[in-house]
Amino acid sequence: YSNRTVSSLTSSPSTDHAELNNTSPVKTPVKSQKKPSKASSPIHHTKSPSNKAPWRPPGRYQIPDILKASENTHRPATLSNKTSRSKKSHLAATLSSTNKIKHSPADSAKKSSPPQPLASAAVATPLKRPWIPVGKSPQVLPLPALPAAKANRPHALFDTKMRKTLPTSKIMDLNPREQYTGFTKIGSGANGAVVRASKRSNSKSRVAIKRCFIDDTDAPHLAYILREIRIMGCISHANLVGLKEATLWGDYVWLAMDLMSCSVFGLLCNISTGLPEPLAVCVLRECLQGLIHLHNKGYMHRDVKCENLLLSSSGEVKLGDFGLATPISRNNTARLGTAKWMSPEVIREISYDEKVDVWSTAITLIEIMDRVPPLYYMENTDDIFAEILWGPPPHFTFASPSNTIREIATWMLNQDSRRRPGAKDVLQHLDRQIQDGYLQCASQSDLALFVQHVFDKSTD
C-alpha cells in the first residue's frame, strides 16, 4: 500500500469520534457509515438489507386498469366532446407516465414512503353497456343456409326419404352391378323382381336383391317401397327377412336382403303332396312368432301366404315381402292382398286390424297341408269373394289333419273378426297342445333335412 493509504487506515480513533460529534442529529436512527473516498480501496460497499424499504405488491394506484380505460373510450359517447377529450388526454398521460418509469438510486428513497393513489377522475365509474336482447346478440352469427339439393340428382325426393328412413350403415352409394356378381332370378315380390347375387369382394357372402322401379309420379307405389324398406331395415327378428343394404342407382332402388333357399310355395311345387303335420306345425309356429313381433311394432302384413314364407338351408322360417304392410294405428279399409287369402272384412272394405293376418295364416296352414289353398279351382275374383263371404267356411280338402289342427284352423277362420283370436293367442294355444301331447312339432333340423332331401331329389 502507499503511504497515504496506510496513514488513512492507521488514523486515530479520536478523530473519528470528533467527526461523529459534529454531525447533525437525524430523526431516524440509522447507523452511520464512513463514505470511502475515490482514491481509497477499490472494494465496493453495498447497502445492508436492513436499509431497503419493505416490498409491497403493486396496487391499482400504481398500475391503472388500462383495459377498462381503453374500453371506456370505445363506448358510445354519452358525455360532451370536451369531457371525452379530457379523459383521452388523461389516459395518454397515465400511459406515458407508466411507460417512463426508470429505476434510479433516487427512487429507492421514495419507496419507503407510501405511494399516493391516482386522481379520482381516472377511476370514475365506467359507463354501463347498453342492454341487448339474447335473441339479437350481435356476437352470435346466423347459421349457414342448408345446402340445396342438386338439380341433376335423380329421384331426389325419394332419396331423401329413404335416407331418413334407414340407418346410414345400410345405405350404399356405389353401383350395385360393380359390387355384386352372378345375378340369377329366383322370384318376384309385390314391388319388384328378386335375384340372387354374391359379393365380388367375398363370393361366400350371398344375398337376395330386389329391384324396384322408381316412378316419381306414382306416389302410392313409392309409399309401399318406403314402407317395406322401413320394416326390413328397422325391425329385426329371427322370423322376419332383414335388409342388409339399399342403393338408389339410376331409376331403380336395389334392396339387398337375407338370402333364403326357397319359399314354402317353391317347396310344395317340388312334391306331390302337402307337408306332413309335424312340419306344418313347425312352419306355423315360426310364422306366428314373426307376426307377433310385427304386430307389436305396430304393423300388419296383409299378404301372408306360402309364397311369402321363406326357408333357409338350416331350417329357418322367415316372413318376407312387406310391400303391402301398413300401420295398425291407421283406419285401414283398402282391399289389398291376394284374393284367396283375404279375410271377409277386407273384402267388404270395412275397417280392419291385425287379425286379418290370422285369417290369412289359417288359409296358409291349409295350403301347406293340402298343397293348394281353398278355392284353388276358381279364377274369377268376384266369384272368390262371393264364396268367402257367403259360402261354407274354408276347410281341408286333400290332407287328413288331426282334430286339434282342424279346431285351431276353424278358430282362426271365424267370420267375425271380434271373435277371432290374435296371433299371440293362437301361439299360446298351439304350444299348450304340443306340451300336452296332442300335437307333434318338428324341429328346424328336421325341416332342413326335408328341404335338402326334396331339392337333392329334384336335381337328380
From TrEMBL:
Segments crossing the lipid bilayer: none
Domain called Protein kinase: residue spans: 180-439
Gene Ontology CC entries for this record: cytoplasm
UniProt-annotated stretches for the region Disordered: 1-121
Polar residues composition bias: residue spans: 1-26
Coiled-coil ranges per UniProt: none
Keyword presence, ATP-binding: yes
GO molecular function: ATP binding; protein serine/threonine kinase activity
Annotated catalysed reactions: L-threonyl-[protein] + ATP = O-phospho-L-threonyl-[protein] + ADP + H(+); L-seryl-[protein] + ATP = O-phospho-L-seryl-[protein] + ADP + H(+)
EC numbers: 2.7.11.1
SMART domains per UniProt: S_TKc
A Pfam cross-reference name: Pkinase
Keywords annotated in UniProt: ATP-binding, Kinase, Nucleotide-binding, Serine/threonine-protein kinase, Transferase
Binding site for ATP: K210
InterPro entries per UniProt: Kinase-like_dom_sf (IPR011009), Prot_kinase_dom (IPR000719), Protein_kinase_ATP_BS (IPR017441), Ser/Thr_kinase_AS (IPR008271), STE20/SPS1-PAK (IPR050629)
Keyword Nucleotidyltransferase among record annotations: no
Taxonomic superkingdom: Eukaryota
Protein family: Belongs to the protein kinase superfamily. STE Ser/Thr protein kinase family. STE20 subfamily.
Protein name: non-specific serine/threonine protein kinase
